[in-house]
Amino acid sequence: MTDAEFVAILRLSDDVSKLYAADRIEALAAALADVVHQFGYEAVQDGQPAITTGGLSALEGAFEALGWADPYVIPNPIWCDAPVEPRCPNRTTSGTPTPEGYKRFCQDHFHLWQAAQDAPS
Known about the structure:
- By secondary structure, the protein is an alpha+beta fold.
- It has a domain at 78-121.
- The protein has three helices and five strands, in the order H-E-E-H-E-E-E-H.
- The strands form two sheets. A three-stranded antiparallel beta sheet has the order 1-2-3. Strands 4-5 form a two-stranded antiparallel ribbon.
- A hairpin with a 2-residue loop joins strand 4 (94-98) and strand 5 (101-105).
- Helix 1 (3-39) packs across helix 2 (57-66).
- The chain is elongated and about 80 Å long.
- The mean pLDDT is 84.
């Protein structure tokens, strides 16, 4: 192997390492965002659903690592599928299979749906 070939292999190895590191960072950021979505406090910012740290230092660190403001407005939120008019303005907290297909509900409507399923016919 020539010196030039050896240098080329080292550069390729370095490039692959950088790509792997970038993929890992992206995966870690996605996992951290999932944790924040699960454990952050629901809020409303300018009429839009948002998440806030609630002053918890662990969440504050996560928001900082993600580069998010506190509160963080949720882009493309998933809204409640409850069949009510006007449409339920609450964000989804759970989902379940139904005879009409998979539905996502806010906490209040999930409990109402569940009570209706448990009620005698």
